[in-house]
User: Fold this.
Amino acid sequence: MEIKNSRILITGGATGMGYEMAKIFKDRGAEVLICGRTEKTVNEAAQELDILGFTADVSNEHDVENLFKYVEEKWGGLDVLINNAGVGYFSELASTTTADFTRVWDINVKGAFMVGREASKIFIRQNRGNIINIGSTASLYGFANGSAYVASKFALKGLTECWRAELRKYNVRVMQINPSEVVTDFGEKSGYGSDKNGKKLTAAEIAHVSLSMLTMDDIGFITDATVWATNP
Assistant:
């Protein structure tokens, strides 16, 4: 697809990987809308990048509905959805509370589902569109202390595969990026930790992958891209 003048919605777009994706697409002439839960952070990022910003919690159905009303009012359609909003939580199984587990699923799974559902209505109407779900290598294998997060990313992979099968006949390309450890504030916020040794992936690498996937000619698409640091 042609990036210039395309309309791209990025959830969780005010920081980290979402911010870098918004930047790379804006630099190539796209119209970009980011959303996030914190109004101040969203507004600051939108001003810095000269793009649109909207405050929305993707786990809140009313917020998601309002987000897509805004999309329709501003653009009258949509070319790309990047489902990037996500949180992490890492704890031993015996110490993981139902509230902790549910919080991760509300954003990583239910939120992605609701945003994807609303975007699909536009894409079906247009008979074209693109979805990139930001997964994780945690969608490919499990590890100790990862019950909530890993389960949510396995579920997201399932959503990706279902949407791909369902929407392909409408010329909608459904893709997933699975990064390994990326140096953002995600690790520190989730309690997983962050190793800023200069060898981990950065958010810019994931932005580059998203750009590469989307700029492939519409005749084909890359279903999944797993991204590792070369020598972490």
Remarks:
- The chain has one domain: 7-223.
